[in-house]
Amino acid sequence: MTAITLIEDAATLNSQLASLDLAGRLSLVAGLGGRAVFTTSLGIEDQVITAEIGNHRLPIEVATLQTGRLFPETLALIDETESQYDINIVRYEPEQADIDAYAEKYGLNGFYESVEARHACCGVRKLKPLARALSGASIWITGLRRGQSANRADTPFAEFDPERNLIKINPLADWDIDVIRAYVADNSVPVNPLHARGYPSIGCEPCTRAIKPGEPERAGRWWWENDEKRECGLHVHEEGAPAAQ
What we know:
This protein is α/β, with parallel strands linked by helices and 245 residues long. The protein has a domain at 3-97 and 133-199: Rossmann fold. Helix content is 38%, strand content 10%. The protein has 7 helices and 6 strands; from the N terminus they run H-H-E-H-E-H-E-H-H-E-E-E-H. It has helices spanning 3-18, 22-30, 44-55, 72-85, 96-106, 115-134, 177-187, and strands at residues 36-39, 61-65, 89-92, 139-141, 158-161, 166-169. It has a 6-stranded mixed β-sheet with strand order 3-2-1-4-6-5. Helix 3 (44-55) packs across helix 7 (177-187) and helix 5 (96-106) packs antiparallel against helix 6. The two termini are 19 Å apart. It catalyses: [thioredoxin]-disulfide + sulfite + AMP + 2 H(+) = adenosine 5'-phosphosulfate + [thioredoxin]-dithiol. The active site is at residue 232. Pathway: Sulfur metabolism; hydrogen sulfide biosynthesis; sulfite from sulfate.
């Protein structure tokens, strides 16, 4: 399928998804055919999507990037979520050779020293495993929301991802955090206990801190960097521009 066709399909989907509820959005995407993969970080948004996939037995693969530096609470939540929804969350891990090469060049925790080193670490522990997770997929589902950060304020429901040549679906794009919390409470969705300790956005343990009152949701990610648009690279082009809308 050509890029032009995928762009047109994404635009059509973006319009269709806007009028549906979450179950309808995911059901529509699941019925498109081809391989659909949902990548979860086990954050509260992603747990809502996983609950819908599991409860409705949708033919959507659920995968996570097991970076090797996740919080123990996140690792425990993977097992709990699999058990509650009777699903398999496929773990994609970094290659040891890549980790060794990174440590040789930057040091194991060299990501604190420069943006270049941090991006390189994310590349090894996230981007390369993501490429394996999405290999052969035609649909990539994420938990991106417009309210997560200024950098994500224009997140569409569907977009063409030119880096991976697939359609990216963001079914929670218009959900705010209060709606998400209400869904979790009403449906007994298991969530990471770190959320209650001031961690609205949870990534690798060395790179995540609790936020302070009044800070944006993602202020605790890579907090030592000054760029307010900092990202790990999963949802931006290689050159650092936001993904095509």
